[in-house]
């Protein structure tokens, strides 16, 4: 009988791919199969995120539940970004945890499993050329890592301390992986990295210096590959060459994530983001003029230390001018090992809540107005998500999510869909071709 693995994944798409890599290694090398119920599992993994404080608190209560209800012989491993930054503290606080594996040490999963109370959290460890076994949770869309770590020093962000320095994966490895998934029937790939458009700055071995724009060109030469998505690009690295390639290459999906963080140039400076409000707006203008159909999403942090009402209004101003298609907005959360944790001009938490609420309601207004104009439009939808209620959902090239009545024979298929009803996060349509 095979051993059973339960894995919970928190955080970003990089973590989702790390979980796939761990599942692949454990299946092939250790004979595990995944289960949805942790009480049945022989190994429980939690792949953590530490970008904000709340999930870190939740980790320990969750570990307590796992420990109480698991099979008595089951092992528990804590992986991911919180593993990197808390390390052995996790085992000190929760002594029943069997091992701790950092976000930069994913390839060691099948070794660490056999070492009781081991902690592997070296952020300089380099598995950028490691040949992982293969596992993907979706047969329709493939995540592909293009770099590890992050070289920026945004003063709010813990990630450089959990995922280490940025190292690019050689383009030959990325292209071979993309070719392999396309040969297996995948039509859409999703490139992942903390700063994808800084790709090529540093490789471990001697490799040709290929930048992100060139990588996109090379990937789009793969026959049978229909769509390329990526996350996250950094506004600082959005040069003209990149925006032009994005706009003109038909395989690149026309949805751009542009993490603004703040609309105030002063706050951007304190955050060490490397760009100003004007630069950001200029890049949006360039993108919109070259590619009017592109949708733009963003990340915004409110109440960063020192954010005055006027600074916040600068963010509101950018929101009103750009009219983002989707925002991910957060209250600033002080993180250990970051520069900003020492900033003393903390914003009152009620003010922070009010700003967040205001931003989100403004965003809802913007989205409602935008969506109301989409009625009757026709989009080419790639179906990938079967709902239980007789609907199936998919995305347009510019990331509009649409559901239609239909069943699994549409999975992995493209259809032209006319929008018949509007919602805030998902639109409804009918297939016309
Ligand atoms: N507090 C709040 N939000 C944060 N993010 C990163 N660090 C913090 C923090 N300390 C947000 C940023 C980033 C997204 C992934 O999480 O907006 O783009
Ligand atoms: Fe992803 Fe950042 Fe969370 Fe790590 S801390 S899982 S890199 S979002």
Q: Top keywords for this entry?
A:
433 residues; alpha/beta; Rossmann fold; Transcription Regulator spoIIAA; 4 domains; six-stranded parallel β-sheet; five-stranded mixed β-barrel; binds 5'-deoxyadenosine; binds iron/sulfur cluster
What features would you describe in this structure?
The structure is a single chain. With 433 residues, this protein is α/β, with parallel strands linked by helices. It has 4 domains: 118 residues, Rossmann fold (3-Layer(aba) Sandwich), CATH 3.40.50.12160; 118 residues, 2-Layer Sandwich (Transcription Regulator spoIIAA), CATH 3.30.750.210; 112 residues, Transcription Regulator spoIIAA; 54 residues, OB fold (Dihydrolipoamide Acetyltransferase, E2P), CATH 2.40.50.140. The chain contains 13 helices and 19 strands. The chain has a 6-stranded parallel sheet, sandwiched between helices. Strands 15-16-17-19-18 form a 5-stranded mixed β-barrel. Helix 5 links the parallel strand 5 and strand 6. The longest helix is centred in the C-terminal third of the chain and has 24 residues. The chain is globular, with a radius of gyration of 22 Å. The relative contact order is 0.08. It binds 5'-deoxyadenosine and iron/sulfur cluster. 5'-deoxyadenosine binds next to strand 13. The site of 5'-deoxyadenosine (5AD) has 12 residues, from strand 13.
